[in-house]
């Protein structure tokens, strides 16, 4: 079998097929081997013309020839080289989607309400004291690469670059997060709620606060006995609904999001009334397993 494509190297094959006479020769050789003279007699053509066609078929890899002693002479016997040809055409490429992307450092929240256990840290040191919400006001929080709390929320303001002439198609939010246990606990569920512009998108139940080994990017000074890494979750708000890692999270669509001309509000919350109040840990660049901050994308047309 020949598996061809649109690469120029296959031009001899396509040229070999582009002839009614050569197609007839393939049909004849599918029945039996024949020499050039036999082919010429069957087709009613001269041996010189048939020889030219045979050479093109041979160059295309469709037949092969061999000199054979037969009936007291030497004959150029022709036979099929392949039984099938497949042509792989170029795949229709998806049009490139246009989007704006903002990377939001963990400490760049603009509003919060948190309850212990709680805290923040940069890539080098802890900010303030553990379990004291006052340090969430500390100006150094802007450099935080990890934060955690037992219940409450953090909210981020993100610039909206959409122009009046453009239409919003989709919002994509990706972030690494998990529960917050005192220390670590593999089984420590937490219902983490997601809001955009005060619209509840839904919630994901984090299974626990991971501590089975250190996070790939967690700094060496960070204790082994507390938060190490989370799960990378991707939320997409589309015209069909809201999806978490490809699974439907809710019926909230792009049209359900109240638009603001200048900004987006992203709130991540573990409410006290949730069925599982296991807290929240957010991992940014320099912590956890993914070495990235919160990524907020808006796709437009």
Automatic annotation (TrEMBL):
CDD domains: HTH_ARSR. Pfam families: HTH_5. It comes from the Bacteria. The keyword Transmembrane does not apply. InterPro entries: ArsR-like_HTH, HTH_ArsR_DNA-bd_dom, HTH_MetalResp_TranReg, UCP030050_HTH, WH-like_DNA-bd_sf, WH_DNA-bd_sf. Residues 2-96 form the HTH arsR-type domain. Keywords: DNA-binding, Transcription, Transcription regulation. This is ArsR family transcriptional regulator. It comes from Paenibacillus silvestris.
